[in-house]
From TrEMBL:
BP terms from Gene Ontology: methylation
Keyword set, alphabetical order: Methyltransferase, S-adenosyl-L-methionine, Transferase
InterPro entries attached to this UniProt entry: Cation-dep_OMT, SAM-dependent_MTases_sf, SAM_O-MeTrfase
Keyword Transferase applies: yes
Protein's name in the database: Predicted O-methyltransferase YrrM
Organism: Bacteroides stercorirosoris
Pfam families in alphabetical order: Methyltransf_3 (PF01596)
Domain of life: Bacteria
Record-level Gene Ontology MF annotations: O-methyltransferase activity; S-adenosylmethionine-dependent methyltransferase activity
Length: 209
C-alpha cells in the first residue's frame, strides 16, 4: 500500500455522488487531472467547516468537483459563486451541480472571472483560486479588495509539480513564470498572512489582515 492509499483509507469517504463525478470526468473530459480528488476535496470541505464563510468564490469550476466539496461544508445560509471561462464545460458541469444535493447553494457562471466578478456586488469570506496559472496575480489583486477582513484565499497548484524550484524557467513556460511571480508577491505582501501546504500540487492559504 502506498502512503496516499493509506491516507485515503483513513479519512472521510467522498461519497457516491463525487465518486461518480470523478469517474465521469475521467471518461468524458480532457485533462481530468485538473479536478480536485478525494483528499483535496475533503480538505476543502474541512477548510469551509473551519472558516465558516457565508460567501465563497471559486475561480475555475472545471467539472465541479471542488465546488461540490466546498458547498458540502457550507452553512444553511451560505452561497458559493463559481466561475468557468470555458463555455464548452457548461454542458458537462451544470447538470452535475444542479442534480446535486447542494444545487441551491451554488451559483455557476460561465465567463472570465476577471471580468465578471467586478460586476458583482459581493464580499467573500473565502476564495478558492484555481484558474489560469498565468493570471494568479491578477486574480489575487482583484479578489483581495472583495474579501472581508480576516477572510481567506486558498490558491491551488502553487508548487506546480516542483517547477517553482527552477531558477530560470524557459521563457515560453508562462505557467511556471506566473506561479513563481505569484509566490514571490505573496511572500513579501504585508497585507496578508500566508502558509504553503505541500498537499497534492501545493495549496497556499492566505489570510487578509
Ligand atoms: C484546474 S481547473 C479547476 C479544477 C476545479 N477547481 C477542481 O478543483 O476540481 C482550472 C479551470 O479554470 C478555468 N479558467 C481559466 N481561466 C479562467 C478565468 N479567467 N475565469 C474562470 N475560469 C477560468 C479553466 O477553463 C479550467 O476549467
Amino acid at each position: 500500500m502506498t502512503i496516499d492509499e493509506y491516507i485515503l483509507r483513513h479519512i472521510d469517504d467522498e461519497g457516491e455522488y463525487l465518486k461518480a463525478l470523478y469517474r465521469d470526468t475521467h471518461i468524458k473530459l480532457l485533462y481530468p487531472r485538473m479536478a480536485s480528488g478525494h483528499l483535496q476535496g475533503r480538505m476543502l470541505k474541512m477548510f469551509v467547516k473551519m472558516i465558516r464563510p457565508r460567501r465563497i468564490l471559486e475561480i475555475g469550476t472545471y467539472s465541479g468537483y471542488s465546488a461540490l466539496c466546498m458547498a458540502e461544508g457550507l452553512a444553511e445560509d451560505g452561497m458559493l459563486y463559481t466561475f468557468e471561462i470555458n463555455d464548452e464545460q457548461e454542458d458537462f458541469t451544470r447538470p452535475w451541480l444542479e442534480n446535486s444535493a447542494y444545487a441551491d447553494k451554488i451559483k455557476f457562471y460561465i465567463g472570465d472571472a476577471l471580468e465578471m466578478i467586478p460586476q458583482l456586488d459581493v464580499t467573500f469570506d473565502l476564495a478558492f483560486v484555481d484558474g489560469d496559472k498565468r493570471k494568479y496575480i491578477e486574480y489575487y489583486e482583484m479578489v483581495l479588495p472583495r474579501l472581508s477582513d480576516g477572510g481567506y484565499i486558498i490558491a491551488d497548484n502553487t508548487l506546480w509539480d516542483g517547477h517553482v524550484l527552477e531558477e530560470q524557467p524557459h521563457r515560453t513556460d508562462l505557467q511556471t513564470i506566473g506561479i513563481k511571480a505569484f509566490n514571490d508577491l505573496i511572500a513579501q505582501d504585508s497585507r496578508v498572512e500566508k502558509v504553503i501546504l505541500p498537499l497534492r500540487d501545493g495549496l497556499t492559504i492566505i489570510r487578509k489582515k
